[in-house]
Write a structure and sequence with these properties.
The complex is a heterodimer of chains A (284) and B (370).
Chain A: H1 4-31, H2 45-51, H3 54-87, H4 96-110, H5 113-131, H6 138-162, H7 167-174, H8 179-208, H9 211-216, H10 224-235, H11 239-273
Helix pairs in contact in A: 1-11, 2-11, 3-6, 3-8, 3-10, 4-6, 6-8, 7-8
Chain B: H1 2-8, E1 22-31, E2 35-45, E3 50-54, H2 61-69, E4 76-81, E5 84-85, E6 96-99, H3 111-121, H4 126-139, H5 155-167, E7 173-177, H6 185-202, E8 205-210, H7 213-219, E9 222-227, E10 230-236, H8 237-242, H9 247-252, E11 257-260, E12 262-263, E13 268-271, E14 274-277, E15 287-290, E16 295-299, E17 309-319, E18 323-330, E19 335-341, E20 355-360, E21 366-368
Parallel strand pairs in B: 3-8, 3-9, 6-7, 7-8
Antiparallel strand pairs in B: 1-2, 1-4, 4-5, 9-10, 11-15, 12-13, 13-14, 15-21, 16-20, 17-18, 17-20, 18-19
Helix pairs in contact in B: 3-4, 3-5
The chains are: A mainly alpha (284), B alpha+beta (370).
Chain lengths: 284, 370
């Protein structure tokens, strides 16, 4: 139990943290209203320019395509990986061998994305020079993104599955479900929240990623982060870039609020149908 | 209900006289190359029998059950269910259903869907499925919870759902892995009786795993007492309790007084208590065992006119409600535990320090192996 006074002190401490988090975002929104860099006054000029900037939209489109395709593939593969790691471990494995599955999952997450990006670049160049396939472009970015998203999905699915009563899988087999049916009728529905979570995480990571995209992109494949980076490199932080940032912040806030209201609504309907769950703890 | 009964008592298929019978031959399971969980077990379980595997934790009883269910593969030996070899039959194609200790109810399904899962996986069409699930829910008195999530049930309700989920498939054999161990004492006693009635009514073979000797005695037709991966004794409840084969069985099933013996003449053995008359032939036994409730108490002044009567002093008296347990010190500093029912407590009970005469009737002395 935290003493009350300490509690007040800690909550007081929270405000500067919030300020640190949100002041920069507010500043971005504020500067997006400037007519030109370092110029006083307010206008929606930057937004006007942005909305007529074809290159920005092309970059956004590519980012979304990349995010959706990579997250979908990574979700499918990562779910299978998480399931496999949870269910098909060797019972006889000891020591490092027993830890191998989790090492395999964690390594790409821990690895700096710079290292990951460069290694992907080297790999794709190698494959391209040997086989002629996999020229740098959307396909290489897609493969790289799928690769780095898989561990995140696998980890969420693995976490959910290993938290379950392991007898559930046996119960499904006991009730006449073979491996495939058990996967479809037990595993998929039970880990569904983790799958959705992993998918959304994949989208976020993909849209957010600059480093890996940068190393694996081809000449024509410009994602939003690459576009922003090159725009800044060319002419510094312009009001248009701030406008773009503001729009992204706005979108995320809207999505977060929507999520909040929808889940609250759902919670209420559920409590209306059922009485609150009565917890019975048996000595299991 | 009537419908249900008829469904459950389908006439046996022609030539399927062994439906629900289980035979184990030399079944062995070794874990990680070192621990022998189940060691060379031979066992026959009759159709329609309530059979209990009883033993302390780690004796291999659950592993044996899991091999019958198909979750574990024996390293050696054969398992036959209803006369069919189970060597290459995976769990999902065995006509057995399991009730797990943790119940293992599917968290994403409600009660009704949980019970119907097996039928759904076997491709039973929805209307037929609903009919059977409804009948089973009525039988188990869980109808009112049909649409509740499995996570919103009490322990007793979960247990019923788990049982219903197994029984609705009309398996030849039902495997129960300590299904009552998570429940409180009162509910447990209720469900023991209920489970027993259900089994008699449906006529399925039940294999019940427990470490609770009382539960095993109450419920079983026959018991197999297990220890260290081996079966120590198999037999009807009465036999296993009254005529244990060895010291382990005697001690695991209730209280017992055990003394080392050396044979003297026919029907007489020498023990630390003195010479005992016994009714049984010796047959290589080296221990004499008598249950505490089979010890007769008399006032110290009673004449010693029969064999096996010894004077002693009550050192401890533990009142247990229905009975009182006494610890008696005999002449040569030996202790023996006796139990008397309290139906005559008002009339006569023995106090610590009181001198008594005890009698071990020859027919109540069992000669057992170590």
């Amino acid at each position: 139990m935290i003493p009350r006074k300490l509690g007040y002190a800690l909550s007081g401490f929270a405000w500067p943290v919030y300020a640190l988090l949100y002041t920069p975002l507010a500043l971005v929104a504020y500067y997006s209203l400037a007519p030109a860099p370092n110029m006083a006054g307010h206008s929606f000029h930057a937004y006007h320019v942005l909305l007529h900037d074809g290159a920005a939209f092309a970059a956004l489109r590519l980012s979304l395509i990349l995010a959706l395709c990579s997250a979908t593939s990574a979700t499918a593969l990562g779910t299978l990986l998480g399931y496999g790691l949870c269910r098909f471990r060797s019972r006889n494995a000891r020591g490092v061998l027993a830890q191998l599955p989790s090492l395999i999952i964690y390594t790409p997450i821990i690895m700096p994305s710079l290292v990951f990006g460069i290694s992907e670049l080297i790999f794709f160049n190698f494959v391209h020079s040997v086989t002629g396939f996999l020229a740098a472009g959307l396909q290489t970015m897609l493969i790289a993104h799928i690769t780095f998203e898989i561990p995140y999905v696998a980890l969420t699915v693995f976490g959910r599955l290993s938290g379950l009563d392991q007898n559930l899988f046996e119960a499904s087999h006991d009730l006449y479900a073979d491996g495939l049916k058990s996967f479809l009728y037990l595993v998929i529905p039970v880990v569904q929240p983790a799958i959705i979570g992993g998918f959304l995480l994949g989208i976020t990571l993909s849209i957010d990623d600059f480093t890996i995209s940068f190393f694996t992109a081809g000449p024509g494949s410009v994602t939003l982060p690459i576009y922003i980076y090159s725009a800044i490199a060319r002419k510094g932080i312009s009001p248009e870039i701030n406008a773009l940032g503001t729009l992204m912040i706005g979108t995320i806030i809207v999505i977060a609020l929507l999520h909040f209201f929808i889940s609250r609504q759902r919670e209420r309907t559920r409590q209306g149908v059922f009485p609150p769950p009565q917890q019975t703890k048996g000595a299991v | 209900m009537e419908q249900m009964n008829r469904d459950m008592h389908e006439p046996p298929l022609s030539g399927a006289g062994t439906l629900g019978a289980i035979s184990l031959r030399g079944v062995t399971r070794v874990f990680a190359g070192a621990v022998t969980a189940v060691n060379q077990i031979d066992l026959d379980i009759n159709p329609g029998e309530f059979f209990t595997l009883l033993g302390p934790s780690g004796c291999g009883k659950t592993t044996l059950l899991r091999m019958i269910a198909g979750f574990e593969t024996p390293d050696a030996g054969r398992i036959l269910i209803s006369g069919r070899e189970m060597q290459d039959v995976p769990a999902h194609r065995r006509a057995v259903n399991t009730v797990f200790q943790s119940y293992a109810l599917f968290p994403h399904l409600n009660v009704e869907q949980n019970i119907g899962f097996g039928l759904r996986m076997r491709g039973v069409k929805a209307p037929e499925r609903k009919k059977r699930v409804d009948a089973m829910m009525e039988l188990m008195q869980i109808g009112p919870f049909a649409t509740r999530s499995a996570t919103q049930l009490s322990g007793g309700q979960r247990q019923r759902v788990a049982l219903a989920r197994a029984l609705v498939n009309e398996p030849e054999v039902v495997l129960l892995d300590e299904p009552l161990s998570a429940l409180d004492a009162k509910l447990r006693t209720e469900l023991q009786i209920e489970l027993l009635r259900m089994q008699k009514r449906l006529g399925m073979t039940f294999i019940f795993v427990t470490h609770d000797q009382h539960e095993a005695l109450v419920m079983s037709d026959r018991i197999a007492v297990m220890s260290k991966g081996k079966i120590q004794q198999v037999g009807p409840v009465l036999d296993v309790y009254e005529k244990p084969r060895n010291a382990f069985v005697a001690e695991f099933l209730g209280l017992s007084n055990i003394f080392a013996l050396t044979p003297s003449t026919a029907h007489k053995v020498q023990t630390v208590l003195g010479e005992l008359d016994v009714a049984e032939p010796l047959q290589g036994a080296s221990l004499a065992m008598i249950r505490p409730e089979k010890i007769w108490f008399y006032p110290a002044t009673t004449a010693r006119e029969r064999p096996n009567m010894f004077p002693g002093v009550v050192r401890e008296s533990i009142y247990m409600g229905a009975a009182t347990q006494y610890r008696i010190e005999l002449a040569n500093a030996q202790f023996i535990t006796g139990v008397e029912t309290n139906n005559k407590a008002a009339e006569r009970s023995w106090c610590p320090g009181e001198a008594v005469l005890i009698e071990l009737k020859p027919e109540n002395i069992m000669l057992i192996e170590p």
